[in-house]
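Reply to thread "Modeling small-molecule complexes from scratch"

Following up on the discussion above, here's a worked example others can learn from. I took a protein sequence and the SMILES for zinc ion and predicted the complex. Inputs first:
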Amino acid sequence: MSELDTLIQLLARLPGLGPRSARRAALYLIKRREQVMQPLAAALGAAAAAIRPCSTCGNLDTADPCAICRDPERDPSAICVVEDLADLWALERTGAFRGHYHVLGGTLSALDGIGPDELNIARLIARLGPETELILALNATVEGQTTAHYITRSRASRGKLEHLTLAAAPKARRAFQ
Ligand SMILES: [Zn+2]
C-alpha cells in the first residue's frame, strides 16, 4: 500500500470522516504540505509523546498531576465525576464548575463485561475525604445510573454525600460534539 493510501485509511478512522472526506482531507494536506501537513505531523508526534493520564483524576495532560489538579484557584474538596474526557471538556467550557474532576473512563455495564475494576473507581473512592462534596455528572442512561448507585453505595460509609446528576453535562457534551 502506498503512503497516500495509508494516510487516507488512517484519516478515514477519525470520527466524522468517511472514505470520501478522508480523500478530500488528504488532498488538502498534500497541497499544503509546508503550511499544514508538516506542522500537523509534528504536532501529532509531540502530542502522542507528551500526553499522559493524570494519576489523580484521569484527565489527559502533558503534566502529571494535570493543570486542573494543580490549579490553586480550584476547590479540591468538590469532585465532579464524569464518564469521559468529553464531559470534562464540556463542563470546563461552561466555566461553571471550579472544583476538581474524576474521569471514570466509562460506565458499569454487565452486558459489555465492564465492572468496577475496568473503571477508575477505586482511585475515586481513595480520593474522598469525610468532607468531600461528590458531584455525579453521569448520563441518565441505565449504565450511568448503575454507576452512580455503585459509587453512592461505596461512599455511603464515608460521610456526607451530595448526589447530583447534572443534566447540563450530557447536554453540553452534545453541543461540544
Ligand atoms: Zn488531574
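What I'd highlight from this example: The helical segments are 3-11, 19-31, 33-50, 67-70, 85-94, 121-127, 142-155, 168-176. Residues 54, 56-57, 59, 65-66, 68-69 surround zinc ion (CB under 6 Å). Questions welcome below.
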